[in-house]
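debug: dumping io for the single-chain case to check the tokenizer round-trip. Nothing else runs in this session.
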Amino acid sequence: MLVRFRKGTTTIAPGLATSWKPNKDATEWTFTLRPNVKFSDGTPFNADAVVFNVNRWWDQAADAGAKEQTKTFTSWQFIFGGFKAEKNSLLKNVRADGPNKVVFTLNRSFAPFPEALATPFFGIASPAAVKKAGAKYGTPAALPVGTGPFIMQSWKTGDRISLVPNQGHWGKKAAYDQLLLRFLKDPSARLNELKAGTIDFTTDLNPEQLSAVRADKNLTPVIIPSFNVGFLSLNLGNQYLKNDKVRQAISMAINKKAIVDAFWNGLGVTDASFLPPSLSWANSKSVPADYKYDPAAARKLLAEAGYPNGFTLDLWYMPVSRPYFPTPKPIAEAMAADLGVIGIKTNLKTEDWAKYLEDRNKKPGFDMYMIGWTGPYASPYNFYNVYYGEESSADSNYGNPRIHQLMRTAAASSNRAAQARAYAQIHQITYDANVRLPIVHSRPLAAARTYVKGWVPSPRSSRPSRTSPSRGRSEARMTGTLSAERPPGANR
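debug: decoded output
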């Protein structure tokens, strides 16, 4: 990574770039690279390598780009607006300025550009390895080659990844001989293996498992700070939901606090903001602390909207567990029960996860559906852009040019006060719109054997930022789900 996050935080720090500097209006960024770094295949890391990687992600027609390698690189699209020659592309040009400097020219001012580059999607790969492997690069048939402290030794899809130390790593060397990443889908299986000592640490446990972790003297709970939002998304393409009063009634009918108390075991909070608590500086002081829970008033609003006898909607719930919705079906049932009190009958539906993510964007879309987001970097921009940005209305049929303008205003300034003024207006607009209703900001639960020291998971995801088991073992083993939700409007 050119830029990394400090261990366990959302604060950026030097990585393969030792420093970065914008021009006056933040439309050009110059990154100075760490000298004398090599990829694990022995080839040099330099400015040309960075330009090769960026062009691969951004320019679909580039050598080793999307068209040549049949890849989508949608992570670039939803972080930086679009690909080369697309109207919403943030990047205008990238070039090497000597062996150790890279210059990014942007189409518009963007103050959080270094933070965006620090997201996990943008690890710098060996150009030689990419060219040699072609479309197979980054798969079990052609393992990734980078500059990090580990080298990927093997990868068995859906089962495990084996990593060994990179003896040529430019930074701190790994303290153990091997790191095994195992993939166990079921939280109960993960906890059972942790208790048995067949794994050393794990992520993405369900909140209800906290008491079991605390009851085991050999385990230590690791509670990750909240940097996410789980929400209920409403589709204005639906004949009922296009009515402002109907959406307001739904927001007033759902007893969010009772739901969070019931399903998050003290590891979640609910409020009226799409942003997690750590970004509360960007909230409006005019917006109430949370949506008002008032079933009687909600029923009255439905009558004023012309639906005194209610109606029926589909409520789609996720088929997978995520930290923000650990048990989606029971949570959906609780919301459905609350809506039933005011006369809105619901048909609970779900489907395969990949199809769920795809079908929400297909006409006519889902009436209501559960989804969430864990921020890849510490700016309100990435939370709002993914679900309220110019390319993010396929699932909701809600687009607001005022929000888009305010987002650009906020992103153009490095002044926190100026950003806060713009984001506060977005907060007010989205609160009044009742399109994406925040249900929870959860604190994900991880756990480790007591001998594991120095493991601090990142609040941006379930991934460990770095581990330092201290029991003298030659092997560290973990489990977890390494994934990010695809935002609406992104192509698969």
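debug: round-trip ok. The first strand starts at residue 3 and ends at 5.
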